[in-house]
Amino acid sequence: MMLFSRVRGLPVLTPGDGDRLGVVRALTVDAVSGTVTHVRIRSGRLRRETALAWDDVDATGPDTLIALPSSSASAEPPPHHDLLGSRVLTEEGEERGTVLDAAFDPLTARIEAVLTTRGELPADHFLGLGDYALVIRARGTGFGTPAPHD
After folding, report:
1. Nearest 5 degrees, angle CA 87-CA 130-CA 5?
2. I want to staple 94 with a disulfide (CB 3.0 to 4.6 A). Which of 3, 87, 90, 115 is the partner?
3. What confidence score (pLDDT) does residue 77 get?
4. Quick one: average pLDDT of 36-41?
């Protein structure tokens, strides 16, 4: 497992000659499938940002990502919403904390769990991720059912 917070800032190198493509700024997530889809890389003096499909990541390690240069990298990255720091809301609009970190499998790109200010949340409860919040299914999460009051 890898944590989003540990991936940020890692250098992205090419295999073989080890050319530096840049550093990881963020990971783009498809909340519906619960997977990482792209690595957002910042490079150069102008701090240009590109997006590289996760499928082009050849290897991951604790201190670097190895990525195949690809035609899928572009100056105009796909739409991106930061998972880290997002508010967590149920589909009814109830606040359920803030995302602190997320653990994912680097081989499958599948998000295994999200750590929030209210505890751990499995990715299979995600409904969507936008600029405003991560929206989750309220029932069965432990987050959506209020504690009984006596």
Report:
1. 60
2. 90
3. 55
4. 91
